[in-house]
Amino acid sequence: MEGEGVLSSGLSMAELGLRIRGERRARGLSIERLAGLSGISRSMVSEVERGTKTPTVLVLDRLATALGTSISRLLDEPAHGAMRVLRHAEQRVLRDPSGWERRVLSPVLGEVEFEFMRTTIGPGVDAGEFVPHAPGSREYLAVERGGLRLTIDGRPHTLAAGDSAYYPGDRRHAFANDGTTDCVFYLAMELGQTTGAVGHHEPRRESPDG
Fold it and tell me: Mind listing the pLDDT tens digit for each residue in 47-101?
């Protein structure tokens, strides 16, 4: 879905666009090259950078992956000092129009590519499939309540409240809630090291080009 979606508390679409443009330019990438790496149309990338188009979470994730970074780094500035408390009102929240929410619980830590997230998926909602992250990436997941269908490289796994899972983040991974109540799970993601933008991944569930 194009032009509807991600809402981040405390960050305007113009500010988000400037950060994406800054990351792209820092890597010496043209808009055309970023579009090719992410599988997103050039016009969509351009509009997101200008702050005139609101990306879905999947589109934002594809842009971050193509840039060899995380959504968190696109949303926030690196933390300074040995300790950082993130009050509930300060945490970045992404809401997708399909009916799910991602809350980023971890601060951006300098050069460390790490994310700790709390995700809520509404009943009957398919959050879609995320493209593989950089080689060596790892993800750790724990279900707090409800049920989750976790699919890795096309193979589904059913998780219930209290279950946990680990999987390589450099594989296709998808999340869906087939139940009748909200599913809430926590996800810790450590991205593998990259020397720049990662390789191109073909779009899966739907084309961000619209």
Answer: 999 999 888 899 999 999 999 888 888 888 887 777 888 899 889 899 998 899 9
State the Cα–Cα distance between residues 78 and 58, nearest whole angstrom. Answer: 23
Percent of residues in the chain assigned helix, strand, coil, to nearest 5? 25, 30, 45
Per the listing, tokens 């809402």 go with: 7
Of the candidates 53, 70, 50, 52, the residue with the CA atom closest to the CA atom of residue 61:
70
Interacting residues of 35 by C-beta distance below 8 A, sequence separation 6+: 41, 42, 44, 45
Please give the sequence-ordered ranges of beta strands (E in DSSP) within 62-179, or none if there are none: 92-96, 100-104, 114-121, 126-130, 138-145, 148-152, 155-159, 164-168, 173-176
Total-model pTM: 0.80
Amino acid at 148: L
Cα–Cα distance, 152 to 159 (Å, whole number): 13
For residue 201, the Cα-to-chain-centroid distance in whole angstroms is 15
| Tokens 């569930």 belong to residue | 205
Show Cβ contacts of residue 63 under 8 Å, excluding neighbours closer than 6 positions.
20, 34, 38, 40, 45, 48, 55, 74
Q: Which of 92, 61, 73 is nearest to 26 (CA)?
A: 73
- Report the C-alpha gap between 140 and 76 in whole angstroms: 22
